[in-house]
Amino acid sequence: CSRPQKVCLCPFLPIHPLKVSTCLYIIQHPAEESRVLRTVPLLAACLPPDKCKILVGRRFSEDRYPELATVCRNPNTLILYPGAAATNLEEVAVMSSSPSVMIIIDGTWSQAKDIFYKNSLFQLPKQVQLKTNISSQYVIRTQPTNTCLSTLECAAVALTIMEKNKSIQETILRPLQALCSFQLQHGAQIHHSKEHLLKNGLYDKPMPKNKRKLRRMELLVNNVKI
């Protein structure tokens, strides 16, 4: 896990990489690469190297990333990004019998949105989303809403659906739970979602002057999906 012995997460990782047929391509925003408490390294440690490939960057052209371009044109490739055009992953998994490739964008919500819309390659795969009411267990980092999941959590849920194996989710989430537990024991505070803070009058940061951002906060408070 590459962490100090005192907070080593290796005992919480699977002894052997999980056997999965789905291959993940993690498109990581450069800002995530330098974060100390990122979840992608834990995800990669749970899977075989050929089933979890990480590409770091903001812009992905066909010239610079020919392998990714081929993957995006493959009819069995899915991209996990919620929206009106996205199909629920459960429906796709029922119809799919062949091994799939799934692209997941790793970054804040604004970073992920920028990567998704400004790279034409990511408009090619079938867009899917998770239909789940699971609350994030990544409690040491603030999320927009209670049901916004970390990259590791998204991958765990998605792989469980694609592989039709409920134990995958439990196995992948185990190191994340241990990470959060260690951090809380060493002085970290539980981070409630922005949605929770706004609804309970606990949001202590200055309200944005930007009308669009203010509108997004109003939607959070009123339980409107954004």
Automatic annotation (TrEMBL):
This protein's UniProt keywords: S-adenosyl-L-methionine, Transferase, tRNA processing
GO biological process terms on file: tRNA processing
Enzyme class: transferase
Catalytic activity: a uridine in tRNA + S-adenosyl-L-methionine = a 3-[(3S)-3-amino-3-carboxypropyl]uridine in tRNA + S-methyl-5'-thioadenosine + H(+)
InterPro entries according to UniProt: DTW (IPR005636), DTWD2/TAPT (IPR039262)
GO MF term (any one): tRNA-uridine aminocarboxypropyltransferase activity
A Pfam family matched in the record: DTW
Positions of the DTW domain: 1-188
Secretion signal, residue range per the UniProt entry: none
Residue stretches in coiled coil: none
EC number(s) reported in the record: 2.5.1.25
Presence of the UniProt keyword Transferase in the record: yes
Entries under PANTHER family matching the protein: TRNA-URIDINE AMINOCARBOXYPROPYLTRANSFERASE 2 (PTHR21392:SF0)
Family, similarity comment: Belongs to the TDD superfamily. DTWD2 family.
Entry protein name: tRNA-uridine aminocarboxypropyltransferase
Gene: Dtwd2
